[in-house]
Amino acid sequence: MSRKIKLVVAEDNLIIRMGIRRLLNKSQDIEVVGEAINGMEALQLVGETRPDILLLDVEMPVMNGIEVALRLKEAQTLTRILVLSAYDDQEYIRSMLLNGASGYLLKDEAPERIIDAVKGIVHGETGWVSPQIETRLKKKRKNR
């Protein structure tokens, strides 16, 4: 049997964090090894637990997700980032993907895709984006 995927959840909203954990616990392949309520805690937990995936919110106290992603990219960490956000703003999406995120899911679409995205990203897949975001990105490319 292969080892479980180690994952840290960085989300400041307790109810959302609990829901994410509940979803992830449905998969026997994923182990949540830590939860952070702000960006600084996320960086500390990544350093301490060396997870395969950091499930990262964009808007968090102390340090936002964009800064966390940038610092992890600069540190050349092996931890991959899956963004889980309520924001579908082009700047947020672009900043996160340019700073090393392997995927960007919207919170309202995540329940159906989150486990598949986590597993795919661990196996080297990139470009995991919510269908809404993918549609918006395609429209933007057409308008250029």
Structure description:
It is a single chain. The protein is of the alpha/beta class and about 140 residues long. It has one domain (about 5-140): Rossmann fold (3-Layer(aba) Sandwich). About 45% of the residues lie in helices and about 20% in strands. It is built from 6 helices and 6 strands, in the order βαβαβαβαβαβα. It has a 6-stranded parallel sheet, sandwiched between helices. β3 (about 55), α3 and β4 form a beta-alpha-beta unit. α2 (about 40-50) packs parallel to α3 (about 65-75).
Secondary structure: elements and pairs:
Elements: E1 5-10, H1 14-24, E2 30-36, H2 39-49, E3 53-56, H3 65-74, E4 80-85, H4 90-98, E5 101-106, H5 110-122, E6 128-129, H6 131-142
Parallel strand pairs: 1-2, 1-3, 3-4, 4-5, 5-6
Helix pairs in contact: 2-3
Keywords for this entry:
144 residues; 22% strand; Rossmann fold; alpha/beta
General shape: globular
CATH architecture: 3-Layer(aba) Sandwich
Distance between the termini: 48 Å
What is the CATH C level class, in words?
A: Alpha Beta
Could you say which structural class the secondary elements and strand pairing correspond to?
alpha/beta
Give average pLDDT, whole number. 87
Please count the beta strands (DSSP E, at least 2 residues each): 6
